[in-house]
Amino acid sequence: MDKISITEEVIGLRVDKALATILKDESRSHLLKLIEDGCVFVNGQSVKPSYKVQKDDVIEIDFPEPESLDLKAQDLNLNIVYEDSYVAVINKPKGMVVHPGAGVNENTLVNGLLYELDDLSTINGVYRPGIVHRIDKDTSGLLMIAKNDVASKSLTEQLKEHKCNRIYHALVHGVIMEDRGRINAPIARSKDDRKKMAVDKNGKNAITNFRVLKRFKDYTYIECKLETGRTHQIRVHLAYINHPLVGDPTYGRRKTEEGGQFLHAKTIGFFHPETGKWMEFDSEIPEYFMEFMKNLE
């Protein structure tokens, strides 16, 4: 059990914010999870994140021991775009799940990472080593991977504070007449289907900027830049403006002949966790994606 010394500046703050202020090496999201898991005690009692810190409080944290990882390392021939002792950048193929879950324990990106990389951060749990963000199974493209906890905290904070540059390319149904647009529509879990997300006025803030790259007869090729990173954000926003993603089985048209989801995480940029240097990586549009657009011309 680690005892935390309270400073004058945190008196009156929520306990999650107070701990993030004192423990600068810990991300607020990680501290929030510790509180919710009952690992943070004030005066010997576990508390809610909303608890306000008092002057004479005694705060203790029971940091859990890392769980042993019982996942198979698999040679999945991952495309490693960049790697150093802190971070890696992977170009994920379409059809690969990012991390195990819901009965899927093999052939995920994590299985491949365990085979390819010597070190992975464990801060996000036993089934998500190194994972700080994700893209859908049928979305291809670039992902940041944290190789240690310092990198994980840094990249997570950058994502939270919208400091990362994430650009996607997408093919949508219909012709978008505007050259540029900004979709500002909050997203929440769908009330009708818990497996889906939906635009909801009571949801979390979600902003997607887009610009048209090319117009076809019945389709538009666009670039999307994320300001926020909600689950299924681009797919939900494109459906919301009546230009659903081509091949999207969840938010797209019921009948689709394309046989694939045309969304690719093309560019990713971030500040290196150790050096602070800006790093940006770009990737090629997948062949199936390009071939389909050639056939539209």
Entry summary:
By secondary structure, the chain is an alpha+beta fold. It has helices at residues 15-22, 28-36, 109-116, 149-160, 233-240, 287-296, and strands at 2-4, 40-42, 45-46, 59-61, 79-83, 87-92, 140-146, 165-173, 180-184, 187-189, 197-199, 207-215, 219-226, 263-271, 278-282. Strands 5, 6, 7, 8, 9, 12, 13, 14 and 15 form a 9-stranded mixed sheet that branches. A 4-stranded antiparallel sheet has the order 1-4-2-3. A two-stranded antiparallel sheet has the order 10-11.
Notes on the protein architecture:
- The N and C termini lie far apart (65 Å).
- The protein contains 6 helices and 15 strands.
- With 297 residues, it is of the alpha+beta class.
- The chain is globular and about 70 Å long.
- Helices cover 19% and strands 27% of the residues.
- Strands 5, 6, 7, 8, 9, 12, 13, 14 and 15 form a 9-stranded mixed sheet that branches. It has a 4-stranded antiparallel sheet with strand order 1-4-2-3. A two-stranded antiparallel ribbon has the order 10-11.
- The model has no long low-confidence stretch (mean pLDDT 89).
Mean of residue pLDDT?
Answer: 89
Order of helices and strands: EHHEEEEEHEHEEEEEEHEEH
Tell me the quaternary state: single chain
Helix content: 10-25%
Shape: globular
Low-pLDDT segments = none
Number of helices: 6
Structural class by helix and strand composition = alpha+beta
Please provide the count of β strands: 15
Distance between the termini: 65 Å
Radius of gyration: 21 Å
Give a short account of the largest sheet. Answer: 9 strands, mixed
What share of the residues does DSSP label as strand, in percent? 25-35%
